């Protein structure tokens, strides 16, 4: 998984002649995204959903009640339909989900960019759920001599259900290590000028390529239960700030560029307004041309390709809309890489000159 490390030979001259061979002196960068199942079949989907939905950061309900709901209902009914959804976006050539393909590409391009900065840097990638696991990749970086590791959760907006659970898993790995590498965790970049500018620039490029001008543009972020906000999670506030800064950069009003939240499930109230309900209301209200982009996702995945590009497209057209565009995420495009490069270079300061 690790990108090919560049030529670097640490100075071992101070070591005694009988000193055991040991790798040291390198700096690791580990980018981490959410995860993807290993296949679209029932059992692959079930394993992935079980790991994901067993995370107490993701589902904050009574554990006894949730254990029953998860095992008796969710893991019985959802793997089949979700497998079909994943099959519709699956990278058949590599036999993997698109999130894995894109994250690998991001890591490789990031490594190429950093090659000229410092030959000690090694870039790797992992997934919070599924493969490759965080603990495995931290161990791999340490085995190559990385005494310092920067972990970059690939979430521009912080949430306990995303960024924090990446940290939990990384720290769990450290607990099992006698010689722990020094760890830094990149903070969220929801208001970083480079991020705002590159998301806006990418949106402008895609809008210019359309054969229509959207009457409304939705900035759709992944939702979380409203109770998480009330418990102190800053996610909603950071999403709102990102949307406001994008409006300022693009010169758009709140009516033109609207903030919404997607991907809810269960009966609990989630952050609002809901993307699917907004799409339906806009179509029924006479809006004929709509575009949706996902500034909270650094890579296209099930939630952007199938949920936005498929389900919400169908909702809009079914209720009277005529023109719909699902705008791609930044992915490993030049705009997307500028953001990741800026975040990583900023957080490596002090370790890299």
TrEMBL record:
Binding of Fe(2+) occurs at 222, 303
Q: Where in the cell is it found?
A: Cytoplasm
The pathway is:
Porphyrin-containing compound metabolism; protoheme biosynthesis; protoheme from protoporphyrin-IX: step 1/1
Entry keyword Magnesium? no
Could you tell me the keywords of this UniProt record? Cytoplasm, Heme biosynthesis, Iron, Lyase, Metal-binding, Porphyrin biosynthesis
Q: Which GO terms describe its biological process?
A: heme biosynthetic process
Its Enzyme Commission number?
Answer: 4.98.1.1
Iron as a keyword of this entry, yes or no, is yes
Q: What SUPFAM superfamilies does this protein's entry cite? A: Chelatase
Task: State what this protein does.
Answer: Catalyzes the ferrous insertion into protoporphyrin IX.
Database matches in HAMAP family: Ferrochelatase
Assigned protein family: Belongs to the ferrochelatase family.
Query: What protein name is recorded for this chain?
Result: Ferrochelatase
Give the originating organism. Xanthobacter tagetidis
